[in-house]
């Protein structure tokens, strides 16, 4: 079966499946799901495989254990490790600090855009801006690939989910229906009614 662009855009693929497709078509296999999706979309739109290059490259890091707010996040040995966690905790005035997904996304975007002058301070300020704007992260290309996570979250927030126990199980059943369909890979209230028989065993009594 020949994979068309339309079929590709209407089908949910796991990252491992995207990597295999990229190998089949001779495309780069390094990157996030969003980047792999972009390579395949370009190829299926007619761009020759030889013209499709990796969007971002691994940066060469120098050995540097002590990081500061002025440390460049690319090429100076910076990573989201215990040393960074200590610095972030001090920056935010907390005893402990847990890394957020937004920070990894910002770092990858910097790699993609070649922002070699971006510092740890810039990263933290951009993180604060992103959090302050609410759902901005969800609108990025990378977050758009987290379809299952978004589906579960939206289902659990819905009033329809309150009628069921084992919400994750119910969400998984509905997700399988959506994932294997040609419809948008997102939760809609109509799904509960459409597949009522499939999830009836989990309805609250």
Key structural traits:
205 residues, mainly alpha
Task: Walk me through the structure.
By secondary structure, the protein is an all-alpha fold. 47% of the residues lie in helices and 0% in strands. The chain contains ten helices and no strands. The chain has helices spanning 5-9, 15-24, 33-44, 82-92, 101-113, 120-132, 147-157, 167-179, 190-194, 196-199. Helix 2 (15-24) runs parallel beside helix 3. The longest helix is centred in the middle third of the chain and has 13 residues, at 101-113. It is flat, with a radius of gyration of 21 Å. The N and C termini lie far apart (46 Å). Residues 60-64 and 134-139 have low confidence and may be disordered.
């Amino acid at each position: 079966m020949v994979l068309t662009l339309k079929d590709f855009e209407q089908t949910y693929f796991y990252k491992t499946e995207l990597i295999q497709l990229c190998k089949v078509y001779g495309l780069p296999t390094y990157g996030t799901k969003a980047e792999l999706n972009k390579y395949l979309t370009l190829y299926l739109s007619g761009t020759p495989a030889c013209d499709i290059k990796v969007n971002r490259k691994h940066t060469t890091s120098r050995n540097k254990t002590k990081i500061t707010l002025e440390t460049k996040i690319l090429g100076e040995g910076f990573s989201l490790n215990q040393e960074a966690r200590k610095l972030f905790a001090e920056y935010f005035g907390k005893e402990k600090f847990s890394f957020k997904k937004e920070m990894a996304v910002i770092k990858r975007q910097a790699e993609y855009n070649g922002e070699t002058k971006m510092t740890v301070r810039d990263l933290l300020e951009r993180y604060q801006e992103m959090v302050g704007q609410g759902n901005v992260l969800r609108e990025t290309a990378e977050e758009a690939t987290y379809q299952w996570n978004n589906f579960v979250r939206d289902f659990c927030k819905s009033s329809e989910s309150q009628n069921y126990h084992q919400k994750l199980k119910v969400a998984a059943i509905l997700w399988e229906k959506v994932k294997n369909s040609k419809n948008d890979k997102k939760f809609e209230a109509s799904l509960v009614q459409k597949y009522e028989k499939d999830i009836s065993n989990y309805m609250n009594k």
